[in-house]
Amino acid sequence: MKSKIILLCVLFFLTTGAISAQAKNAPRSIISTTALIRKYHDQKELSGMQKGELLELYIERIKVLVKTLPYIALVTKPGVTMADLGIPDDSEHKKVLDTQAEGTTVFLDTTVDFQRKMMPYSDKGNLIAAILFYESTLKSLHELNDLN
Q1: 121 against 21, higher pLDDT
Q2: What is this structure's pTM?
């Protein structure tokens, strides 16, 4: 009985190790797969929301823009990998992509912290206008795809 438990534990650890090794070698998306907007809004809908809800939408749109805009000459949709674009999937290019992702994360952490502390003092109308502007910019990225 003990040998069966030990054997199952060993198999579990070997399987877990193999799965995590494959995940490290899997191609990464250039644009984060979290850079998506679930829903676009109109001014009437936004006007009916509380300021806290508007702040969350504002922050979400900033995150998507920061995760998308630096890459629009390469790609405008999440999920596209270096291999999809013909970029060599070697250690040098992976390192550059990792460094960029780390920099983006640090920038977003700082920016979101700032937004959460300062934006509650903003005018609700300005917050709505900014959200609509960000959403308009994000919609234009879809049009950019059609130009290619």
Answers
A1: 121
A2: 0.77
